[in-house]
Amino acid sequence: MKILYNLSYPGDRLDVQRAGHIVRANAILNGLEALGHTVIRIEAAEDKEARLAVSTYQNLIKNRLPSSIALKLRDVGRVVQSRRYAHRLIEAIEHHRPDCILETHVPFNLAGKLASDKTGTPLIIDDVAPVWEEEQQYGVGFKSLAQKTYQQVANRANLLIAVNKTLKKYLLEQGLPEKKILVVENGIDGLLFNPLVDGRKYRAQYGFREDEVVLVFVGSFQPYHRVDFLLNAFANIVTKQPARLLFVGDGNHRPEAEVLAKRLGLADKTVFTGRIPYDEVSAYAAAGDIAVMPATNEYGNPMKVYEYMALGKAVIAPNQDTITEIAKHNQNAYLFEPENVQSLGLAIQMLIDDANLRRILSENAGKLASSFTWQTRAKVLEQAILKII
Fold first, then answer.
1. Which of 78, 103, 250, 332 is the most exposed place for a label (fewest CB within 10 A)?
2. Structural domains for the chain
3. For the whole model, what pTM was predicted?
4. What contacts 24+ positions apart, CB below 8 Å, involve 43-48?
5. pLDDT per residue over 226-236, tens digit each?
């Protein structure tokens, strides 16, 4: 089988970035290649004009114009760019003759749809988000245009891939046909994330004592990660064992988290690593005893939970549908009431003081994670594509 993969947003690069959707795209494509299929990767970011447009928006338009005007210009620009970019896709299809087009969902993108219209090549959209996600996360200038382009692409697609059952439910509520929706969850790279990863180097680097219980958070400090929530919960716990917090990663809101840690009197109990290479993330996370996800959005499939479990960590996460699809309370994770600081604090306190419970959760998480590999996910997608073509 020959697959043409399309990454239509010119601000994204498969070989450079490590955002969740890029990690997923690379992992699934590699998995399909490992199954013996040919994957041709086409990226809008290879176009200099498209990259210039992104830079102009981010560095000039976004900063100098009112948000309402800047967003309108951005939305129209994305549609125009995707129409122009579609010609490149069509040329690639005519040259390579793929069996299907596989693309990562990008709002306002019509390139794959137009190429599929022109060539008759089946279109598969991965990592589909609800139509309202863009407005919720980043803002939208033209809501009607967002809805229209989303519907056009969804109607044309032969297959829409949701990352969990919760998201599938949202898509069904938007009126999309169930026969078009396939659930392919996120996964793990078993070579990077497994119980044998050794974090002792970083425990020593940051001066964590052997008797200290280390709680680790890995992420990009997005607002919905609620790092502030974790800090406030940790500030109020009273435990028998000494404990510290390790924050692995970077993001625009990291400075705010550092300021809050100092204000709460946690400066000597928190470590912020800053940006680190992706292939070292697992070893940093392995330095922790307990891995915490203080919050997540209401429809995603958090990759970090899979990775925490694969490392054999005792996981703390909110008790919501997107998490309970992955883990079970008191079996392979400890779940707390979402958005409840006291509940999170009690969960943290419980696991710090109960080494036996930590061990049970860790062992069960590590066993379950063996079924979460990207190879497993790629096989599910492979079978669905074969049925379509």
1. 250
2. 2-187+374-388 (3.40.50.2000), 200-369 (3.40.50.2000)
3. 0.87
4. 43/7, 43/12, 43/13, 43/14, 44/7, 44/8, 44/9, 44/10, 44/12, 44/81, 44/85, 44/111, 45/7, 45/9, 45/10, 45/11, 45/12, 45/13, 47/10, 47/85, 47/88
5. 999 999 999 98
